[in-house]
């Protein structure tokens, strides 16, 4: 999750040489949108909402007929309508999520299940999406620590240090591999010794965001492509983000409005640019119904300025203050 950032070093020391950042391509006024409504690469409801919300569009399930529909095999995911069911069933079953619920979750330790499984399910879905669109490249992972353009910086250090996060990654990636076995017989291991499941799970941990719609709880998590995930954190952000639900029963029509924040980086791998171009020019039905994110300007921004959002909840005083101290001290 974005929040993994806050426990480590001061902000300005963490960006590596291959780090991406987003800059304004023109001056932008207060409250103006910097991005289109970006469709997700992958989403997953938190376990607590699997029986109250639609796993495809994240809307509340109807309490009146027509009743919600569920997957007949695993009975673990529910949909608000037949459109949502049909748009999601391919990714639910082919990503291994259905198998994960039906068979593999039983192999997980109870502490693992108590903590929730949305990160593992989002990772299964992310890998499926990236594989379907030819965005998984071992070269990119070996050379620049990216998968589908998403940063996986720090994975080796986290695994070497051990501890709870490393344990969760190792256990989760093993569950993912066994759930994916039905479609991928051979597991991909990169030259750095990491499996594609480990890399995808870490990418979800550092690139996903909690999805909150109006004043509801955090319903689940979503992973977006470079046009959202390349925004860096600041304790004094000049932009913020919010979610919108895709219109019900409507085919995904690509929002082609211009991005007003564009990536900037020296020396990044060509694959990362490929991932950005894929998303920028995309007419693909990215996450047909999932919650979309929009980045909006909260302070006037000049052309060329870096655009930053905050990864932390500014209303949670303790977290905010400790991070603020770190930012001020740099
Ligand atoms: C979602 S990515 C942000 C985009 C990232 N810079 C990239 O190259 O893809 C999150 C990661 O970016 C880095 N990051 C984001 N904001 C940062 C900041 N203010 N200072 C240092 N590193 C930051 C951290 O490594 C973090 O785990």
UniProtKB/TrEMBL annotation:
Task: Return the Pfam families for the record.
Answer: SET
Q: Which organism is it from?
A: Triticum turgidum subsp. durum (Durum wheat)
* Superkingdom of source: Eukaryota
Q: Which PANTHER family match?
A: PROTEIN SET DOMAIN GROUP 41 (PTHR47780)
Q: Protein name, please?
A: SET domain-containing protein
Span of domain SET: 137-312
| SUPFAM superfamilies from the UniProt entry | SET domain
Q: Which InterPro entries match?
A: SET_dom (IPR001214), SET_dom_sf (IPR046341)
């Amino acid at each position: 999750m974005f929040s993994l950032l806050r426990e480590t070093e001061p902000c300005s020391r963490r960006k590596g040489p291959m780090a991406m950042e987003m800059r304004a391509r023109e001056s932008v006024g207060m409250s103006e949108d910097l991005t289109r409504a970006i469709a997700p690469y992958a989403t997953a409801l938190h376990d607590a909402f699997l029986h109250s919300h639609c796993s495809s569009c994240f809307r509340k399930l109807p309490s009146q007929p027509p009743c919600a529909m569920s997957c007949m095999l695993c009975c673990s995911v529910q949909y608000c309508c037949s459109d949502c069911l049909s748009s999601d069933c391919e990714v639910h079953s082919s990503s291994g999520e259905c198998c994960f619920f039906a068979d593999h979750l039983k192999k997980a330790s109870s502490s693992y299940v108590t903590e929730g499984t949305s990160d593992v399910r989002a990772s299964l879905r992310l890998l499926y999406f990236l594989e379907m669109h030819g965005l998984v490249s071992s070269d990119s992972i070996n050379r620049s620590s990216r998968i589908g353009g998403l940063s996986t910086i720090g994975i080796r250090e986290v695994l070497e240090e051990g501890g709870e996060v490393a344990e969760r990654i190792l256990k989760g990636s093993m569950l993912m591999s066994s759930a994916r076995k039905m479609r991928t017989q051979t597991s991909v291991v990169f030259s750095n010794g990491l499996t594609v499941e480990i890399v995808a799970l870490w990418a979800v941990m550092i690139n996903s965001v909690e999805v909150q719609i109006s004043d509801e709880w955090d319903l689940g998590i979503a992973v977006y492509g470079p046009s959202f995930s390349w925004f860096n954190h600041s304790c004094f952000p000049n932009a913020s983000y919010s979610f919108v639900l895709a219109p019900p029963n409507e085919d995904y029509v690509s929002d082609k409005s211009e991005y007003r924040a564009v990536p900037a980086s020296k020396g990044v791998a060509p694959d990362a640019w490929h991932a950005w171009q894929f998303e920028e020019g995309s007419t693909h039905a990215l996450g047909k119904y999932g919650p979309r994110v929009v980045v909006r300007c909260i302070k006037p921004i000049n052309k060329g300025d870096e655009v930053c959002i905050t990864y932390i909840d500014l209303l949670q005083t303790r977290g905010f203050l400790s991070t603020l101290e770190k930012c001020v001290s740099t």
